[in-house]
Amino acid sequence: MESSERFSEKVFLNGDTYVGNFKGIFPHGKGKYTWVDGTVYEGNWEEGKMTGKGQIFLPSGATYEGDFSGGYLHGFGTFTRPDGSNYRGAWKMNAQHGLGRKEYHYSDVYDGLWKEGVQEGRGRYAWSNGNTYIGNWKDGKMCGRGVMKWVNGDLFDGFWLNGFRHGSGCYRFADGSYYFGTWTKGLKDGHGTYYPAGSKHPSLRRLCSCDKYEGKRKGLLSHSSSLNSVECRVQSPIVKRSFSEKISINGLLRGSSLRSHRTTSLDEGWSLGDSTREFSSCDLPCMLTHSSDGGQHEVEDNASVVFEREYMQGVLIKEWIRKSTGLSYKSKHRRKFYTKEMKKRSFVDIFEGHRSCYLMLNLQLGISRNLRQLFKLDAAEYMMSICGDDGLRELSSPGKSGSIFYISHDDRFFIKTLRRSELKILLKMLPKYYDHVKDHENTLITKFFGFHQITLTGGRKVRFVVMGNMFWTELRVHRRFDLKGSTHGRITNQDGIDDSTTLKDRDLQFEFHMDKLLRESLFKQLNLDCMFLESQKIIDYSLLLGLHFRAPEQLPGLEPPDALHKHENLHQTDDAISQEFPIPPKGLLLVTHEPSSVSVAPGPHSRGNTLRAFSVGDQEVDLLLPGTARLRVQLGVNMPAQARRKLSQEETDSEDAELYEVYDVVLYLGIIDILQNYNMKKKIEHAYKSLQHDPMSISSVEPKLYSKRFIDFLEKVFPYPQQT
């Protein structure tokens, strides 16, 4: 028979106390429970669990008053934090779930649906500065259809994904102008239509009647007031746990823990600042025409002007005027004159005096938006590297082809001018190049990030390509080699060699021994890359090889090391590297890969898998340099090896024994110069030089032979590990 309820006070062995009604040994009915940490619950109990109406006080000063069920915040209730923020609404097992209102201590307010502690479903968020968003949410982020309105009067109505404008939408600016188009991850992307302020074009009346709907529609969105490529991304809330005190009465109240699950706190990290108009000259509607006398005249009659626009990754790449029906002869003639003048003029003329803006526009386009995404290259970082205030540096010596080379101020990118023949080769191979780099993440072939053309005043065209700098590395490169596998003319003048000199095939006196699996990965990709280049009839390419010596002071001609490269701070945290430790004469360790211990940001090869090593049990590995750094090992990046050089008899006292110098080195490598095909000029060069030299020693040979000779040479440079 069940025990009847009784009122009692009990002190538990752990120091907790309970005053109230009991049913048997369990609290049941009204009661007050106090934990030793200061947490207090006062309210209804049911067989040892908080159930019904109640109030809980936490040591932090936070309080909850409302419904409980089975030991959880469950039902309807109000949770108040000591900073003044509060949530009032539905709960499910300690998490906001259902309809609720949250007021933040910085005066932002969210009204709407919640799911497991985060905003999900329909809701309205109002910022303290007056900006508002009404629309759909998912996992705490604006997602789906929604309307956002800025306090300055701008309004966006469209689709969102993970806090970004994504999909179709309509911008309405405070001045009354409109833009209808599509967005990708917050950036205008694709075709769109811009209607200037005051436009009375018939298509605008059909497409939009925001003024009628404002206040009537279920969602009012504000569009970004910025027309330039830097779109605003609304930041997502930071998820915090409210409390997770384990409630246990001497072990009797199992299952009544106050778990918060995914209780959300927007107390930090989520606020949308005021939207200010930031016009870029690259994105302004072209409202000026140029007359024959060189003057400029404003395009009149904006009521009938409609601008069709084409964007790529937030950059306006094309703009033209759509003809409108019902225009007067004078207006039609004016539009015709304007369009004709625009076609005649180059972008350099349009942006005269703003060349940097024009360069910035071109650089944002590149060969293809998908290529830079493939290479995991951030568009903003690309822009800042190429177009930053520090500008570009011209390299002291031009290439053999006569091309001019520049390097970005942060050393991340090379810019090379192209000959017309190279341009044709690049454009022809581009589709297959894209397929190759897409299918082979570890490819060693040059990464092309952008291809651009500028028409200078006078009509001269300059074409250039942007490539990654393979030696933008964590460690300093002490020696660099350009290896083709040929011998004729492949030696460097030995005077004045330093770590910036690029040596050639016959200068290389080392062979490099590396882990079995690392070597297999290297030659698997080398063969794939050479097969691709052979299919495109490409020759004259090279393996650019950079060496970091762990004890360069022992190598003749090398200065004592500053072990880490000047750019490594771009990749390493402050505590990951110390230049105070002396560098041991040897010491390269392969250890199991730990993503949290190394930089996983795109490096000189932009992407690629973490390699596996035979010596570490076929596991992904990092390179540990004792006292210096821990680096992620990728194909062509941070690959450890032993460099061995056979000593001559003049360098040893022994005539019989073979002696070697051995150095611990870190390798950086990739395939460069891939824009020369085996054309008639090269065939003639081969025939001519073959009369004077061994045909196999000259660089210019047919593609299949070039590829085989290239691989055969590298197999000698990186010999297969000897069986032990």
From TrEMBL:
Q: Do you know which SMART domains this protein is assigned to?
A: MORN, PIPKc
Reaction catalysed by this enzyme: a 1,2-diacyl-sn-glycero-3-phospho-(1D-myo-inositol 4-phosphate) + ATP = a 1,2-diacyl-sn-glycero-3-phospho-(1D-myo-inositol-4,5-bisphosphate) + ADP + H(+)
Record keywords: ATP-binding included? yes
Q: Name one GO molecular function term.
A: ATP binding
| InterPro entries named among the record's database cross-references | MORN, PIno-4-P-5_kinase_pln, PInositol-4-P-4/5-kinase_C_sf, PInositol-4-P-4/5-kinase_core, PInositol-4-P-5-kinase_N, PInositol-4/5-P-5/4-kinase
Which part of the chain is the PIPK domain?
295-718
Q: Name one Pfam family in it.
A: PIP5K
Q: Which species does the entry assign this protein to?
A: Actinidia chinensis var. chinensis
For this UniProt record, give its keywords in alphabetical order, as a comma-separated list.
Answer: ATP-binding, Kinase, Nucleotide-binding, Repeat, Transferase
Q: Would you tell me the protein name for this molecule?
A: Phosphatidylinositol 4-phosphate 5-kinase
Its cellular-component GO annotations read: plasma membrane
